[in-house]
Amino acid sequence: MANIGIIGAGSWGIALAVLLHKNGHKITVWSILQDEIAMLEKEHEHKDKLPGVKLPKDMVFTTDLEGAVKGKDVLVMAVPSPFTRSTAHSMGEYVDEGQIIVNVAKGIEEKSLSTLSQIIEEEIPKAKVAVLSGPSHAEEVGQGIPTTIVVGAKEKETAEYLQNIFMNEVFRVYISPDVLGIELGAALKNVVALAAGIADGLGYGDNTKAALITRGITEIARLGTAMGGRFETFCGLTGIGDLIVTCASMHSRNRRAGILIGKGYTMEEAMKEVKMVVEGVYSAKAAMALAQKYQVEIPIIEQVNAVLFEEKEAGAAVKELMIRDKKLENSDIPWG
Hints:
Layout: E1 3-7, H1 11-22, E2 26-30, H2 34-43, E3 60-62, H3 65-69, E4 74-77, H4 84-91, E5 100-103, H5 116-123, E6 128-133, H6 138-142, E7 147-153, H7 156-166, E8 171-176, H8 179-201, H9 206-226, H10 231-234, H11 237-248, H12 253-262, H13 267-274, H14 279-294, H15 299-309, H16 314-322
Parallel strand pairs: 1-2, 1-4, 2-3, 4-5, 5-6, 7-8
Antiparallel strand pairs: 6-7
């Protein structure tokens, strides 16, 4: 049995808390919000973000960050990406040398262009930082619906340890050393999912969705490999797998926000309506900056940025994508 601190009580943090408790581990859940902790203690259910998923009576809920961090075998970092740096900074003084932190949020910091694990390593250099990602909506994991994900870590020993802690008959865990590729796939797919949602909001069909998914993973892999990620990672669970589920499911807050934008909502109005952090909005500008830095073309993500931040009409963005200069589908395939 491991002693685990869940840092963040959103839907994903709570779903993983339930999973890990079922695996026999001792769980402490932390939130900075007193009202949220009071609700969890009283109801033993997150009625706002994960309704219907009952939480065990022996699960501990707290606003005491020191108590949630100190002495834990593993810390699961489940705060939304905009709050990763500030939370990691606050945790730093309580983390022991070599303590394992597994980040499960997805995003890229706009200012620094750092991935979330890079932020945690910068703020807490004495920790061993890993990542967990894949096609894994919290709503389904909380209900025990079969799910498959990937744990990435620099050390194989750390990855295998986390694999053993998380894995069970409904939650299959693969491991990988490509931490950068895993995180880039996880963050960039949210931007493409906004595009898929916008297309849905405009009333487009399955052909459009398939095109966005297929060309979207091309953009993700193009940028990700230029930055040092492995192409194989983008062909796997945290690349095409996560992209498919995020573009297709109504569990996806990014797709839901995109649908609203396609129907005419502003970005701010859509985020307010979804009532959750829409990670793709925060990663979109960072993705454009990275593409410029590495001189990579990402036309879908470019148009998403124009719709989000430049008041471009969504239909016009789609039209511009369709009438771009003629291209080869794959320039690496010779004619003979």
